[in-house]
Amino acid sequence: MPRSEPTPLTLLRRAHEAQVLDLLRRLGALSRAELARRTGLSRTALSSITTSLITRALVVTVPAPAEGPRGRGRPVGLLRLDPATGRCAGVDLGRVRVRAVVANAAHETIATASRPCPPHASWQHRTELALELLDELLGGAAQGLEGIGVGVVGPVTGAAERDLGVARRFGEQYGVPVLVDNNTRLAALAETVHGAGAGSRHVVYVRLSHGVGGGVVVDGRLLRGAGGTAGEIGHITVEPTGPRCQCGGHGCLELYASLPAVAAAGGPENDAAVARAGRLTGRMLAGLCAAVNPELLIVGGELARCGARLLTPLRTELRARTLSAARAGVRVVGERLGDEAGALGGMVLVRQETPALYGAPTGDAVALSMADRNAASADGCCTGPVASGSC
Amino acid sequence: MPRSEPTPLTLLRRAHEAQVLDLLRRLGALSRAELARRTGLSRTALSSITTSLITRALVVTVPAPAEGPRGRGRPVGLLRLDPATGRCAGVDLGRVRVRAVVANAAHETIATASRPCPPHASWQHRTELALELLDELLGGAAQGLEGIGVGVVGPVTGAAERDLGVARRFGEQYGVPVLVDNNTRLAALAETVHGAGAGSRHVVYVRLSHGVGGGVVVDGRLLRGAGGTAGEIGHITVEPTGPRCQCGGHGCLELYASLPAVAAAGGPENDAAVARAGRLTGRMLAGLCAAVNPELLIVGGELARCGARLLTPLRTELRARTLSAARAGVRVVGERLGDEAGALGGMVLVRQETPALYGAPTGDAVALSMADRNAASADGCCTGPVASGSC
Prior knowledge:
Chains A, B: InterPro entries: ATPase_NBD, HTH_MarR-typ, ROK, ROK_cs, WH-like_DNA-bd_sf, WH_DNA-bd_sf. By secondary structure, the first copy, chain A, is of the alpha/beta class.
């Protein structure tokens, strides 16, 4: 279902807010007059913006140093960023472990924690575990938290009971925007922005683990698709006459390149089993190179630890099946962030998609805000691909 | 090579311009005072913007109706859009025919023409043919033309001699921004915005013709990839043990679902040959559904005229190989715009990517402008995926 678009006026308003916040970040405390001069905004327009920023606790007023005679009119106070703002949390409700990460406004990880959980724990149980972790990391002081990005296992449509429930519970607890997405897709985003793909903008990430999943990053943003299931690349056919998969298809990559599949074929010590996994992963990736033309392919998950035994046949098959033009630019590398990638990706998502102090790192100054998500939810009842905490 | 990003101030400036233009479009002629009141901009900021719009011939001044006493200061004139602006041209330098289309500011096609050309004509010859067509369509009056989008056959990297040469020639002739892209990808864009996909935002288009190509549209925008080769979906492997393809791969879709392939297998009258083409096209599309999760698949090209004989096996294979979640939302339809799609797509591209009067139809008010392209070119010498006329 189409999501309603922000209006030009909303975009303009956000661009103005971003400009004010950017000036305060770079120049420290400023008077309203100075902000008006530097932004070119009228007093009325500026006043509306600063009032909103103060109400949202992004900006605080501080007394101006007394110097020279004061004129009449409103008291001269300076505006500056709230020093407690800008923290961001990422959570990964993984299959066997729950993780939480908190970063400061400078995008530095300031705290991290994890706890094992049984593979068949309910999402409610995982959520409560994660809330305990977050409480410890934040020391009870959630003030200044900008948002929480939560990774979950499996497709995220934004309408599923679990996705809405997870978003609601975190939202209730902290009163901030909550974005829920697939945890493997979030790992793709984190690897692109902070890991093996740092500096790249077009990336395909594949994770060879208990299942096979991944994520496609286009121009620095995660591709979610119409229904939020983009990146389910473990269920692309690689052997058309292969056996039936639990997804209903035949010959899916997951049947050859997951941990259980390799275990059944001799285990990770068996070169032939690992080579087959690599070759068929390369075949799948070759198809995506033709369709999406990434500059970088990142291979992660436990099987990636097999190194060259996996990657050499993968690269050989890739070369054999990729159009020369797309092949020319593409590199294959291992992942770098390891088990924290999913939680880190949650933070990246929040920074990209909420009206953050520091904007998206991609030069996109007008990222979709929670306000728009909420507006869309009011119309479409949370059918967007990302569940939000306020639904 | 990464393209330099517009700065927040450039984005802000463009948002202001878009707001001024939008007000003039919706409300007709307005005074500067009225524009200041409605935009919230200071006189100084607004003056800078209107001066630039007037210099660029997007806005003209007209005398205000005389009413009431005049105050002192600058003469009261009204600003309004230049009625001659907003025309846009699309060109398709196709394999056997060159086409040109011109639309007005209301996005209505006002003139169209085509001329056959031999399959082995040089790009220079095709370009001159297209310039003749455009001269006829424009009646020698290129004034008010916003830009030209040109479709060419084969991968477009933005650095190839042909791509640069085509852009330069059109740019010299008309002095407007020229964008060059693959003509099948442009057809995908046109079908998404004005054709079978109107209203959709996530679309995969496949064209079954002399070759097999296509385009992937994500969130209303054409996916180009890191090197500009995205959408070469005719060279995705569908039969891993199949014969060698001219691209260097084996078992590519084009070996089964192109006109020559079907001709060799019995011709378009032969049900089995057409069914095989449909089945293998469905297999390729199933993979893209998993990776990209489109809401709509558009099948075009001469083979699509086989109708149900092609589409029924295509849909059957798609259902058998697509993850249930992605399958739930996806529809398969035939193309609607026919042979003009490539030229129409050139116009859509220009409207989306140049700082147009009417902005992008996707709610993205700050589309990448030619100014940025040129800045990027100065650094990177036209290595971006789209060649521009000023290089």
